[in-house]
Design brief:
alpha+beta; single chain; two-stranded antiparallel ribbon; Ubiquitin-like (UB roll); two-stranded antiparallel sheet; globular
Length: about 90
Amino acid sequence: MAANRSTSERIEQTLERLGTEDHVWVATSSADGVPHLVPHAETIEEMLAAVESAMMAAGTIQQGQQVVLICGFPVGAIRPTNLALLHTVGE
């Protein structure tokens, strides 16, 4: 098992990847704290579908659980975070 990264290492690596990849970071509440990358979405529906798919494949969530999606809106535009959405998986 890999050693935990320090906060400064996490910030540095996150900023580096955000600057070079066309993806959305999805933070999870998983015990191991591993983030999931999902493809860039143009709509909130596309984003929710990608997030659900990635997190369900990882076993992080199940149908019927609620998750909070925090993003910039409108989704297709590169915007600062301005939306928090409570979503029930599978609905």
